[in-house]
Each structure stands twice: as C-alpha cells, then as structure tokens.
Write a structure and sequence with these properties.
The structure is a single chain. The protein is an alpha/beta fold and 257 residues long. The chain has a domain of 148 residues: P-loop containing nucleotide triphosphate hydrolases (Rossmann fold, 3-Layer(aba) Sandwich). Helix 3 packs across helix 4 and helix 3 packs parallel to helix 5.
C-alpha cells in the first residue's frame, strides 16, 4: 500500500453563502497522478487550492505529511509549502519581471543560500527542458498563453516539489504545446517522491497520463478511483462527463486515420 501524503476530512466550503463543497473526505497517495474532473463551476479549482493549503475551508481538516495543517505553527506551514508547487490557470507570472527573474523568485524562497551563478545555471537548465530558453530575458507579455504556461511549469518544477498541483494546464493550448506539457508532466510524475494533482477537463490527460480519476459533482466527490477501474465500468455506470470525453477522444482518433 502506498503512503498517504494528503488527507481531507469533512471539508465544506461556501462563498457568499453559496455552497461550493460539502463534507468532502479523500486521501492522496504518494507517487500518484490524480485528475480532478467535473462540470464548470463544480468547485474543482477551489478543492485543489484547499488541498494545497492556499485557502481555508468553512469546516474540516487538512493533513499533509502527517501534520494537521490548520493547527501547526506558521514556520511549520512554511516548511510544508516549500515542498509544494501550484500552477494556476492563468500562469500567474509577474509582469514587471523578466522570465529569468520569475524563475529566480522561488529559488530565493526555497534556497536563500544559493549564489547567483548557481541560480542562473539552474534557471537556464529548466527553461531549456521546457523549450523556452530563448525567452529568458523577455517579459511575460511578450509570450503566448501556451508559452506562459510552459514558463509557469518550469517555475513550479525548479524547486523539485514533492506535491505538484496544476489547475487546467492544457486549457487554450495548441496541439504542439499540449504534447510538450503532457511529456513534461508525465516525466516528472515518474519520480518516486513526486505526487501530482491536476484539475482538468482534458481528454488527453484522462485517457493518457493520469492513474487516478476523481469526479466532483453536486458539491461532493462522486468517486475517486484508479483510471483503469473507471474506464472498465459498464457504459450504464459511466458518468456522462467521462462518456462524453471518451466519445470525443474516439471520434478524433478515428478522424486521424
């Protein structure tokens, strides 16, 4: 049995009296790549941010690496955050900094003792891995949405996080950048110390690199199980959202023949 790295228990979240999540409980095991799927507005991004400790729920507990996150000291929370990276939907690059400076920021937080030469070399290696070394001195506004997401991935991975969250990483991307991002995420997820959680509606991730699928529906987790088990469900038991994804996937695969 794999080690559990994150547990939510009885989590509820409301915003302006609008119920978003209700009494959710779940475990995330080490070295899994879990996708959170659900209809638009179902609370997928909110759930991921609660799991990452970025927002506090209305009720419930979050346990990360055996520590009750809402009860530990601020210093202990910082120590946990240093082991986590979160890639937001909009990439969230800082517009008045260069691409290089954007990647140096997390290094300053995680490794304040690292000298500038080492920082520069590490930034160059990470940008080269995602095919973006050519824009190292550019600004975020000069990049396409896809290029910004590649840089955001590089920034997230530069500290070698043990727990990586990605919120809609493939949204609005062309096929070339989609494949590149998929390869990067999959390669990183193969490290035995890494756990990945992806909020997505992407059939490429659902049918490809993930190994667990979590469906969020009507404020609750409808199921959280292995991809192989989900895809082997009888059609009558398959949730509509997954059936629609698979039908679209099969149609597009046939169209390419």
């Amino acid at each position: 049995m794999k080690k559990v790295v994150l547990t939510l228990k009885d989590i509820s979240f409301s915003n302006n009296n609008n119920l978003i999540l209700e009494n959710l409980s779940l475990d995330i095991e080490q070295n899994t790549l879990t996708t959170i799927i659900g209809k638009s507005g179902s609370g997928k991004s909110t759930l991921a941010k609660i799991m990452a400790g970025l927002i506090i729920p209305t009720k419930g507990t979050l346990t990360i690496w055996g520590q009750d996150y809402y009860q530990i000291s601020d210093k202990e929370k910082v120590d946990i955050r240093k082991r986590i990276s979160f890639v937001f939907q909009n990439a969230a690059l800082i517009s008045n900094l260069s691409i290089k400076e954007n990647l140096i920021l997390p290094l300053n937080f995680h490794y304040p003792e690292m000298i500038k030469k080492e920082q520069g070399e590490l930034v160059e290696r990470m940008l080269e891995q995602v095919g973006m070394l050519k824009v190292i001195n550019g600004r975020p506004a000069q990049l396409s949405i896809g290029e910004q997401k590649l840089v955001a991935i590089a920034r997230a991975l530069i500290t070698k996080p043990e727990l990586l969250f990605l919120d809609e990483p493939l949204g609005s991307l062309d096929a070339t950048i989609t494949r590149k991002l998929m390869d990067i995420i999959y390669t990183y997820s193969k490290h035995d110390w890494t756990t990945v959680v992806i909020v997505t509606y992407s059939k490429e991730i659902i049918t490809g690199i993930c190994n667990r699928i979590m469906l969020l529906e009507e404020h609750k987790i409808k199921f959280n199980m292995s991809k192989n088990k989900v895809l082997s469900l009888p059609e009558k038991d398959m949730p509509d959202i997954i059936t629609n994804m698979l039908n679209k996937y099969e149609f597009e695969e046939e169209s390419e023949l």
